[in-house]
UniProtKB/TrEMBL annotation:
GO CC terms of this entry: membrane
InterPro entries: GPCR_Rhodpsn, GPCR_Rhodpsn_7TM, TRH_rcpt_1
Record-level Gene Ontology MF annotations: thyrotropin-releasing hormone receptor activity
Domain G-protein coupled receptors family 1 profile: 28-287
Function of the protein: Receptor for thyrotropin-releasing hormone (TRH). Upon ligand binding, this G-protein-coupled receptor triggers activation of the phosphatidylinositol (IP3)-calcium-protein kinase C (PKC) pathway.
Residue spans crossing the bilayer: 12-37, 49-69, 131-149, 177-205, 231-247, 267-290
Gene Ontology biological process terms from the UniProt entry: phospholipase C-activating G protein-coupled receptor signaling pathway
Record protein name field: Thyrotropin-releasing hormone receptor
Matches recorded under PANTHER family: THYROTROPIN-RELEASING HORMONE RECEPTOR
Family of this protein: Belongs to the G-protein coupled receptor 1 family.
Length: 329
C-alpha cells in the first residue's frame, strides 16, 4: 500500500529526511555546547539554559531520530528488548528536559528584565547551573516509569512479522500518563511563556529604557536595551517554534485518545515525527541568525577547526618531505 511502512518509496523518503535533519541537528547542537563551554564571555545564565536545551535536543535526535531511520530502512525494530527500554527512556528524558529548559530560561528572562534588582542575585551563572541540575534530576527520575511501560511486540502486517517497540499497557491505562505529560510538559510551559513574554514585551517595547549617549567608551542604556530586546526576541522565537512544531504530534495523540481506532497513516506520522526532529535541530540556526555573539562564536569555532586541519596537513607534509630526503640520502 502507498503509505505502508513496508513501501520502498516510504522507506527511502523517510530515512533520507530524518537522517539529514538529525545529522544537521547533531552538528548544530554540539557546536552550541562547544561555543558556550569554550568561550568565556558566552558563559551567561541564559546560555547555560541553552546548553541544557542543546543537550536535551541532542538526546531527542540520537534516541528518537536515528532509531527511526533504522525503523524506516528495516521496517522493523532491530535494537532488541533492552534497546527498546533504554531508547524510550532517553527519548522522553530529552523531550521533557527540553521543555523544562525552555521554561527555565523564560522565567530567567522575566526576572532579568522585569525585576532587574532581584536579578542581580537570582539570575547568576552558578544558580543557573543548580537549576539545570535540578531539572535533569527531576526529569531523570520521572522518566524511570518508561522502563516499566514499554516492551517489544510482534505484529503481522501483510503476511510479514514486524517487531515494534510499543507500550506494554493498554491505551486506556496510558491515557492518564499521557495527559499528565501533555499538561506539565507542553500546556503549562506554553501558558507560562505566553504570560511572561507578554509582561516582558510590555517592559521592553511599551516602556523602553531612556536613551543616553555613549560616555567614556562604556555601553549606554539604549545599547543594553537593544541587546536585551534581541536576546528576548530570539528566545521567544525558540518558544514559538517549540509550540508550532510539537502541535501536530500532540494534536494527533489527543485525537487518537478519543477514537475507537487510532489514526496511524504512515505519511502523516512521518510529518509529525519530522516536525519534532526539526524542533530539536532548528535552534542552532535561530541562534546563528538572531544573535551576533553566537554567530561570531560559531565562526571562530569553525575557523579554529580549519586552522587545526591546515596545521596538521602541513605537519604531515613536512614529515613526508623529511622522510623523502632521508630516503634519497
Amino acid at each position: 500500500k502507498n503509505g505502508s511502512p513496508l513501501n520502498i518509496e516510504y522507506k527511502v523518503i523517510s530515512a533520507f529526511i530524518v537522517f539529514v535533519i538529525c545529522a544537521l541537528g547533531i552538528v548544530g547542537n554540539v557546536m552550541v555546547i562547544l561555543v558556550v563551554l569554550t568561550t568565556k564571555h558566552m558563559r551567561t545564565p541564559t546560555n547555560c539554559y541553552l546548553v541544557s536545551l542543546a543537550v536535551a535536543d541532542l538526546m531527542v535526535l540520537i534516541a528518537a531520530g536515528l532509531p527511526s531511520v533504522a525503523d524506516s530502512v528495516y521496517g522493523s525494530w532491530v535494537f532488541g528488548h533492552s534497546g527498546c527500554l533504554c531508547i524510550t527512556y532517553f527519548q522522553y528524558l530529552g523531550i521533557n528536559a527540553s521543555s523544562c529548559s525552555i521554561t527555565a530560561f523564560t522565567v530567567e528572562r522575566y526576572i532579568a528584565i522585569c525585576h532587574p534588582i532581584k536579578a542581580q542575585f537570582l539570575c547568576t551563572y552558578s544558580r543557573a547551573k543548580k537549576i539545570i541540575f535540578g531539572v535533569w534530576l527531576f526529569t531523570s527520575m520521572y522518566c524511570v516509569m518508561w522502563f516499566y511501560l514499554t516492551d517489544i511486540e510482534e505484529l503481522m502486517y501483510e503476511d510479514v512479522t514486524i517487531i515494534t517497540c510499543a507500550y506494554k499497557v493498554s491505551r486506556k491505562l496510558y491515557l492518564p500518563i499521557y495527559f499528565f505529560d501533555f499538561g506539565v510538559f507542553f500546556v503549562l510551559p506554553l501558558t507560562l511563556a505566553t504570560i511572561l513574554y507578554g509582561l516582558i514585551g510590555r517592559i521592553l517595547f511599551l516602556n523602553p529604557i531612556p536613551k543616553e549617549k555613549v560616555k567614556n567608551g562604556h555601553k549606554d542604556f539604549s545599547t543594553r536595551d537593544s541587546g536585551r530586546k534581541n536576546v528576548t526576541k530570539m528566545l521567544a522565537v525558540v518558544v514559538i517554534l517549540f509550540a508550532v512544531l510539537w502541535m501536530p504530534y500532540r494534536t494527533l495523540v489527543v485525537v487518537n485518545s478519543f477514537l475507537q481506532e487510532a489514526y496511524l497513516d504512515a505519511w502523516f506520522l512521518l510529518f509529525c515525527r519530522t516536525c519534532v526532529y526539526l524542533n530539536s535541530a532548528v535552534n542552532p540556526v535561530i541562534y546563528n541568525a538572531m544573535s551576533q555573539k553566537f554567530r561570531a562564536a560559531f565562526r571562530k569555532l569553525c575557523s579554529c577547526g580549519t586552522r587545526a586541519q591546515a596545521k596538521q596537513a602541513a605537519y604531515k607534509e613536512q614529515k613526508r618531505t623529511a622522510g623523502a630526503v632521508l630516503t634519497s640520502s
